[in-house]
Amino acid sequence: MFEVKGDAVIATATELRREAGRLLERVDRGESVVIQRNAEPIGVLVSYDLYRRMMSTIGQMEDLKLALLAMHREAKLRAGADELVPLEALMQEFGVEDDAEAEGARA
Hints:
Elements: E1 9-12, H1 13-18, H2 20-28, E2 33-37, E3 40-45, H3 48-78, H4 87-93, H5 99-106
Parallel strand pairs: 1-2
Antiparallel strand pairs: 2-3
């Protein structure tokens, strides 16, 4: 069983296929539609405005998380409790290519 908050409607994947127009009308009125298959949620239909706001909020939260990590790291460095790691080592560890080097390798 899963939890649905607010004014969400639950519809099966079969209902979505048969009644897409009616379900989209509900989304247009501000409702969310949780789509389920085999009694498990597989997706949610929401208004585009709500989707945009959610994506913006997620972006802001990611920015805040990075800022907090940077502040924590700076505090540890100032206290001498941490060592600097070369950027190249981090890039190699996470498999990130330097754009300039990647362009040179392709040329």
